[in-house]
Write a structure and sequence with these properties.
The protein has a 7-stranded parallel beta sheet, sandwiched between helices. Strands 10-9-8-11-12-13 form a 6-stranded parallel beta sheet, sandwiched between helices. It is an alpha/beta fold. It has 20 helices and 13 strands. Helix content is about 40%, strand content about 10%.
Length: about 500
C-alpha cells in the first residue's frame, strides 16, 4: 500500500561524470536531502562502477529517499581509470538526452506504484545542458549548478570578446613566448589587471573551430541564460566577479563553501553510516594511514602535494618534483595517482628512483589517494601544493591552508591568479620548473616572509568562510532563498545540529 502522507519534493541531481564535478554535487545533494528532499543522484555507468569499487557496494545502495541511478555516457567500456575528457564531453552531449528522458519517465511512473515522489526539479551540471530540454518536456524546472569558480565562469565569458577584438585566434604557436599571453586585458570588468595567460586556457589555440574553445564558450553563455544558477562560492570571496555575473543573470545563488554549510544539518536516517559520514565522493580508495603519519609532525610543518584527479605529467616532471621535495628538507605527504604519469598506470612509487625513496623514508609519505578534506584539516599541514582546481581551492580556504599554485588546465590559471593576486593565499610556481626551483618555492612558502603573510591571509579567509555559512551569513541566507524562490520549501530547522 502506498503511503498517503504528503510526498517529499523530488530533486534529480545530474553531475558531469568526472570527480571534480561529482564531488560538489554530492555535497549539494546531501544538503538538499537533509532539508526534506527525496534525491535521485544520476551517475554514468562508468562512475557508478568506480564509486562501488572505492566506497563499497553498500554506499551506492543509498537510502530509501536518496537513490543512485545510472545512465550510459555513450563511450565504449573502459577498464582503466583514465578519462578522455574531450571525448566524454562530446559523447554526453550526443548520447545522454535520451537515457535521461527515459529515466525521468521511469521515476515518475514509480510515483503511482511505489510511493516514490514524482520528479519536481532537475539540478544539472552546467556541462549537461541537454537536461533543460528534458525538464521542459516534463514541465518541471531545471537549475544549473556551476561547479567551478565564479571567476572561472567570468573568464569563459570573455571568449567571444577576445574574438571580436582580434586577439584570438592566435597566428602561430609562439604566443607563449612573443608577449601575447602576458598582455594585460584592462577591459575585463571584475578582473582588473588580469593577463591573457590567466584566463581559462582553452583559449590557447590557433583556430575558432577548436572543440574545447567552442564548447566552453557555449556552455558559459547557456549557463548565463538559464533560469537559475547555483555556485559553490561566497559573495565576500568573489564580490567583483559576482557583481558582473549577477548583472547578466540576477538569479544566482552563492551557497558555498558547501562543506561548511553542511555542518548545520544532519541526516536523520541510521541505515547507512558510510553514506552519512562521507562528505564527498572519491574514485580511488583513500589511505587512512596517512592521517596517523601526519600525527607525528609539528603544526604547520608538512607540505601536502596533490594535483587532483585528472592532471597528468611526464616521468621527468615526476622525478624533478620528487628531488625538489627531497631537497626542501621539509616533511611531505605526496599523492601520486596510478595514472598520474602520462600514458602509464602504475603504483605510486614505481616511477620513482630508489635512491630518492631511501633519501626521504623518514620524512616523506607517498600514497595513491587520501581524504583531502581530512588531510587539509590536520594541524600539521603547512602548505598545499595544488593544481588549483576549484574543489581543492575552496577546501584549502575552508581550512586556512596557504597554497603553492601549479595550474594545469581549464579555469585553474584563473583560480591561481585570484589566489595569488587578489586573496593573498597563494604563490605561483612556473609550469616548467626544476628541482632547485621546487625546493626554493617550498622553502619560501614554509619559512619565508611571503609564506607567513599567506598563512595570515589564509586564516582570515577561513574565518570569513565560517561566517558566511553561519545562520546569519550570506551563503546560508542564499541557501534559504534558493529553497524559497526556486525549490519552494523552507530550510528544515529540525535538521540543525
Amino acid at each position: 500500500m502506498c503511503d498517503s502522507s504528503p510526498q517529499k519534493p523530488h530533486i534529480v541531481c545530474l553531475p558531469f561524470p568526472a570527480q571534480g564535478h561529482v564531488n560538489p554535487f554530492m555535497k549539494l545533494a546531501k544538503l538538499l536531502h537533509s532539508n526534506g528532499f527525496h534525491v535521485t543522484f544520476v551517475n554514468s555507468e562508468f562512475i557508478h562502477k568506480r564509486l562501488a569499487q572505492s566506497l563499497g557496494s553498500d554506499f551506492v545502495k543509498g537510502l530509501p529517499d536518496f537513490r543512485f541511478e545510472t545512465i550510459p555516457d555513450g563511450l565504449p567500456q573502459s577498464e582503466t581509470d583514465a578519462q578522455d575528457i574531450p571525448a566524454l564531453i562530446d559523447s554526453t552531449r550526443k548520447h545522454c538526452y535520451g537515457p535521461l528522458k527515459e529515466l525521468i519517465g521511469k521515476l515518475n511512473s514509480l510515483s503511482s506504484s511505489s510511493g516514490v515522489p514524482a520528479v519536481s526539479c532537475i539540478i544539472a551540471d552546467a556541462n549537461m545542458g541537454f537536461a533543460e530540454k528534458v525538464a521542459d518536456e516534463f514541465g518541471i524546472p531545471e537549475i544549473r549548478f556551476w561547479t567551478a569558480s565564479a571567476c572561472g565562469l567570468l573568464g569563459y565569458l570573455q571568449y567571444d570578446e577576445l574574438v571580436k577584438r582580434g586577439i584570438f585566434p592566435f597566428k602561430d604557436e609562439n604566443f607563449a613566448n612573443n608577449g601575447t599571453s602576458d598582455a594585460t586585458l584592462d577591459w575585463v570588468t571584475g578582473m582588473k589587471s588580469i593577463q591573457h595567460k590567466d584566463l581559462p586556457n582553452f583559449i590557447r589555440f590557433k583556430s575558432l573551430s577548436e572543440f574545447l574553445f567552442e564548447y566552453k564558450a557555449s556552455v558559459s553563455e547557456e549557463c548565463m541564460k538559464s533560469s537559475s544558477i547555483i555556485i559553490n562560492t561566497f559573495q565576500e570571496l568573489e564580490s567583483e566577479v559576482l557583481e558582473v555575473i549577477m548583472a547578466k543573470n540576477p538569479n544566482v545563488y552563492n551557497i558555498g563553501p558547501l562543506q561548511l554549510l553542511n555542518r548545520h544539518f544532519i541526516h536523520q536516517e541510521k541505515e547507512n553510516d558510510q553514506f552519512k559520514s562521507s562528505s564527498g565522493l572519491s574514485f580511488w580508495k583513500s589511505d587512512s594511514k596517512c592521517i596517523q603519519w601526519l600525527d607525528q609532525w609539528k603544526p604547520s610543518s608538512v607540505i601536502y602535494v596533490n594535483y587532483g584527479s585528472i592532471a597528468v605529467m611526464t616521468e621527468q616532471n615526476l622525478k624533478e618534483f620528487a628531488w625538489g621535495l627531497a631537497e626542501s628538507r621539509h616533511p611531505f605527504l605526496w599523492i601520486v595517482r596510478p595514472n598520474l604519469v602520462n600514458g602509464e598506470s602504475n603504483n605510486e612509487t614505481s616511477n620513482l628512483p630508489k635512491e630518492f625513496l631511501d633519501e626521504i623514508k623518514d620524512r616523506g609519505y607517498i600514497t595513491s589517494w587520501c581524504s583531502q578534506e581530512q588531510v587539509l584539516a590536520h594541524p600539521s599541514i603547512g602548505v598545499f601544493w595544488t593544481h588549483c582546481g576549484w574543489n581543492s581551492t575552496i577546501e584549502s580556504i575552508c581550512e586556512g591552508v596557504p597554497m603553492i599554485c601549479w595550474p594545469f588546465s581549464g579555469e585553474q590559471p584563473t583560480n591561481c591568479w585570484f589566489a595569488c593576486s587578489r586573496w593573498g593565499i597563494g604563490i605561483e610556481a612556473k609550469h616548467e620548473i626544476n628541482r632547485e626551483q621546487i625546493a626554493d618555492i617550498v622553502k619560501e612558502a614554509m619559512e619565508g616572509d611571503k609564506g607567513k603573510e599567506m598563512r595570515r591571509m589564509s586564516l582570515e579567509w577561513k574565518m570569513k568562510a565560517m561566517e558566511v555559512t553561519d545562520e546569519e551569513g550570506t551563503a546560508y541566507k542564499d541557501f534559504k532563498r534558493l529553497m524559497k524562490e526556486r525549490l519552494f520549501v523552507t530550510v528544515n530547522s529540525s535538521a540543525k545540529v
